[in-house]
Amino acid sequence: MALRTLAKGIMDHATSQRTPESLKVLRRSFAGKNEPPVYVVFGAAGAVGSDLVGRLVAQPGATVFASDRDTSALDNLKDAHVVPADTLDHEAVAGVIAKAAEQHGRVDGVASCVGSMLIKPAHLTSTDEFMDLVRMNALSAFHILKGSVGPMMSSGGGSIVLCSSSIAHRGTANHEALAAAKGAVSSLALSAASTYSPHNIRVNVCVPGVIEAKMTEKLTESSDARDASERMIALGRLGMPGDVGRALEFLLHPNNAYITGTFLHVDGGLGSMAPARAGDSKTVKQN
């Protein structure tokens, strides 16, 4: 009886959040809007972010606001509205999203391609190094989420996509600080997906593996280092920025408006399986 009463209370609360008028707004959902989409991409100057911006501006009629603290690299982004901002500054992040919302009446999708990495065991990682990772990854994601939900609640919903890492979903030696920071991003998104679902706001996570980019140069600077990285991956190769860009576009796109609270792993199997190799006893034979 107590459980039944509790369940009824939760349902009543959820229903109270959706008045008849707000239900009309939600029925005019992101998937049903006739207007071209409005997107904001943070970390737009990086390999993945710039790839995503290119894909989004190619959508018919789409408007894309591209933001990064690296202002010099932003000049290379074509057909996007460039708005510099440091994601460690909440007011700056909120200002970018607010600018898009003020100019177009809404923001349909926001993506975070912000991140940093560190490969060190815990006993060699300083507190400052740990906190820098947490700030750049988890705090940036929090600022982007916090700045997005207000405008989206006012306009009938939208999509938010954060980037975590396969390191946060499997035990990997010498990645304790990075795993903690990226794990915080994953947990943040999952909780937010629940919190803001009554407002038709979808929150999902892209989970990349090892991607060819400036950030991962140390993993590919020698043939031995590259080989070691590739041998960890079931598909036997590193990912490309476009692999992640396509996944982010998929999660942002209005056609996929029934997906929320999901982790889309783009890691070649790194986070979920042990690789089989030609000649291994467990490798499936062709004949």
From TrEMBL:
InterPro entries: NAD(P)-bd_dom_sf, SDR_DHRS6-like, SDR_fam. SUPFAM superfamilies: NAD(P)-binding Rossmann-fold domains. Keywords: Oxidoreductase. PANTHER family: DIHYDROANTICAPSIN 7-DEHYDROGENASE (PTHR43477). Belongs to the short-chain dehydrogenases/reductases (SDR) family. This is NAD(P)-binding protein. It comes from Coccomyxa subellipsoidea.
